[in-house]
Write a structure and sequence with these properties.
The protein is an alpha/beta fold. It is built from ten helices and eleven strands. A seven-stranded mixed β-sheet has the order 3-2-1-4-5-9-8, sandwiched between helices. Strands 6-7 form a two-stranded antiparallel ribbon. It binds S-adenosylmethionine.
Length: 308
């Protein structure tokens, strides 16, 4: 088990919508620590891979937003220059026209630092794109501050020693190269919720991702998938398909309600669906024979499992 006990988690400097930072103590101990490579398929602001980087021989950070991944790569490779460039691009809390110029400039000639500056200055620090990949979030009367600087410096200092084993890449998940023995963390846009990056994710993508997960499972990779089973009465197609196939879901104390634009939803249930049985589980009431090695996931749903 990867222990989070007494460990200070590294918080990325991006204030990313859907960040799993506040759920890391629940999620990380459920990963398989024996895998040879960790692949964060939907890395977003980087909170997950950054906090398991010292536990795996190789780590891949992937996200479809090229400049989001590139700013992480640059921040870790050359923190001083990346921070200085981003600070110089940020506008003051009063400068709305300057923010609009920065946004137009990014949409015409995007760079990783311009994206980070927009994230620092926009509404609720929530990056938002339209379907044509144009940044369209409004001005948030905020800017790069001391807290951002402290987080950015700590993030870079933590990851820099691991650079030789880190791969930063920007690919659609279907193009991610998966090997037997990989541990995949899969945190896609939740199709039954809203977020700024959901503009280019739909229910067909849930089915596409499900099919891809079945393929990577057959290849011998393990996966852990985050999602909310139900939100405001809407079920998640991806999680339903995984459950119907027999994969095991672990209920988590969710953080989703805090970022939902439509406010808290009592029926929201955050889960982690696993393609394997984590070490931290023990059967509490066995209704079937005890699990064997390499047991099929379908057999596990009938077991009443609990966190150790
Ligand atoms: C819920 S967020 C991930 C948050 C991340 N785990 C964190 O802690 O910051 C989902 C991410 O999926 C990315 N994404 C959307 N479509 C994708 C695709 N087809 N392939 C890879 N990444 C994609 C989005 O850009 C977004 O960053």
């Amino acid at each position: 088990m990867i222990s989070c006990y007494m460990k200070k988690m590294i918080e990325p400097p991006f204030n990313y919508t859907g960040s799993k930072f506040k759920m890391l103590e629940q999620i990380i101990p459920l990963f398989d620590p024996t895998c040879s490579r960790f692949v964060d398929v939907f890395a977003g602001g980087g909170s997950v891979y950054a906090n398991v980087v010292d536990h795996y021989p190789a780590v891949v950070a992937n996200d479809i937003i090229y400049h989001l991944i590139d700013v992480q790569r640059r921040l870790v490779s050359d923190p001083a220059a990346t921070i200085a460039m981003t600070q110089s691009l940020c506008v003051t809390k009063e400068d709305q026209p300057g923010y609009h110029r920065l946004r137009d400039d990014f949409n015409a000639q995007p760079t990783p630092e311009k994206l980070w500056a927009l994230m620092c200055c926009c509404t609720n620090n929530m990056m938002r794109f339209n379907r044509s990949w144009k940044f369209n979030q409004t001005f948030g009367r905020r800017t790069f501050n001391e807290r951002t600087l402290a987080k950015a410096t700590a993030f870079a200092a933590h990851l820099m020693p691991h650079l030789p084993k880190l791969t930063f890449q920007s690919l659609d998940f279907e193009k991610v190269n998966v090997q037997s023995g990989d541990m995949l963390y899969v945190d896609p846009p939740y199709s039954n919720t809203e977020a700024g990056y959901n503009a280019y994710w739909n229910k067909n993508d849930d089915v596409r991702l499900f099919n891809w997960l079945c393929q990577v499972h057959d290849k011998g990779a393990k996966f852990a998938v985050s999602g909310v089973t139900i939100h405001a009465g809407v079920r998640c197609r991806l999680l339903d398909l995984l459950a119907e196939t027999g994969f095991v879901g672990v209920p988590l104390q969710g953080d989703y309600n805090k970022v939902s634009r439509s406010g808290p939803k009592e029926d929201t249930q955050e889960v982690l669906m696993l393609s394997y049985v984590p070490e931290t589980f023990k059967p509490v009431s066995i209704k079937m024979p005890a699990p064997q090695q390499n047991i099929e996931p379908t057999a596990l749903v009938a077991l009443d499992m609990a966190l150790a």
